[in-house]
Batch of 2 targets.
Target 1
Amino acid sequence: MKAIARATGMTAGDVVGVLNGAVTASGPGEPRCWVNAGWSRSVDLEGAPQWAGLDPGASDAEAVRGLVAVLVAADNTRSTKAQVAGFLLDVWCLGVKNALAPEPMSESRLAGHRGLYFSAFEGHVQVPADLARALVFGAAAYARGLGFAPAGELAEEFTQATGLLGEPAGPSPIGFGRDGKPFFVNGPYDDPEAVLRTLRRTVGDDGFHFGVAFPEQPTQRRRLFGPRR
């Protein structure tokens, strides 16, 4: 599989999709979208079985973390560069963890950026834009119902990035949370006490699960995708 990927210039995930007969490309006028391999293990696809076969990393041994990365590239017929944006999603609880506002990139730069973008995961796979929209807008709506929504700079970047993705046709058919409930696992730049207070207020003490390591000192949110150029 890796030899085929090297020979064709595709990712291993894209090769698997082709060999399985999966349609991963978006339609005409739609943005090109990629998600990390293994994404389907963090969500419930009972309501969207048509997408279950688009994840070559679904059986990998990588630990399920509840984090899903989405990369979007919108082509422009008047330019050789695509506008590229991205999202880091907590599909179990917080929704939008970070967003990368649109930035123009040549195909060669996009290829390198894509490799770095998914370097924390076991590869990536191209998916239809409808699936990317269901993940991004669905995770955001799920988190909003729990009391979490992008704010400040993150809200601005999220709005700009979703402008490339386009609007969803309706409510997301993907199920979020873990085992039917929100599951909060804090990162180094979260405020666990504030998150747990919000969850207790919105769903009650028995309405969620969590695994929290409280930091000794408060920290500030950082840009997970690196500095903008």
Target 2
Amino acid sequence: MNKDELINEVVYEMAPNLTREQIDRLKITMLVKMQNCEVSDMQYLPTVWTYDNDWIIKRFRIDSIAKGMAESTLSQYVAAVRNLFRETGKHYQEITGQDVTDYLAVKQYRDKISTNYKVTLRKYFSSFFGWAFRKRHIESNIMDDVDAMKSIQKKKDCLSDDEVESIRESAMAAKERAIFELMVSTGLRVGEISLLDVSDIDFVHRRVSVYGEKTQQYRTALLTIKAARAIRHYLDSRLQESDALFVADRRPYGRMKNPAIEKVAKRIARRAGITRLSATVHVYRKTFVTVMYRKTKNILMVSKLAGHANTDTTVKYYLIDDLEDMQHTYNIVNG
């Protein structure tokens, strides 16, 4: 084990108990304090290390967490790599690019996975084997031998203005209305909504302090008057005392988790008669981004409000560029 590996091990073990800022401070402190130190494994005889697939996956997990990858994202990468090793029956030092190519082909034929998911799996494997090659765990990056694939650009569905108003005019409980107005006002991700505390809401300036799931940095979201009032009404009406902004309806009244929030998002849309799509939190997020861009034409501002690392993500995955969008622009130009 070298110095970097030791530091990453410590960060990995401490990560569940520290904030992102504390983790960064711990890593920097250890780097400074150990800059003149050398680290080497103590030798005991007899000692046999088993560098198997579980070992390499653990190393990947440790380094990825130390680098700042979100646990929710990392778990998808790890699950994909584990499945690859299990189904090929190969050791990480023996697997080849052809093995990966064959695995992806079988998945598409046998399991009927979509082309886009096939592209996603290739991305996961490229990240893992690219890391393993850079860390000298393997002699070459086998993904260089796996042909790149193009994803199929899906139609970017979002709720229409009429559908948003239909939901708004439907009967909703105080918590449902607070979640709805928050979603269409801020475009927060489901995990970001779950993590919100009451103290994150600034009712005076109608602002929300949001910890970004993807960027792992705080940003500020803005509330409409309707959203601020709906959230205030929910807080005034609820009986449970909690630091969490949204709490479960049943004991022990803990913080609402992602599945429960998704359930609310879909339920209020179905109640308003919207059945053409599954109104996930992500659909409300796309709706927010699309509406904000149509109104402002300021892609940089919209990208910042959405918490995207760059505007390319906003344009590629969120802006609605279909007939509805063209019709909207056409109507504005022509009165």
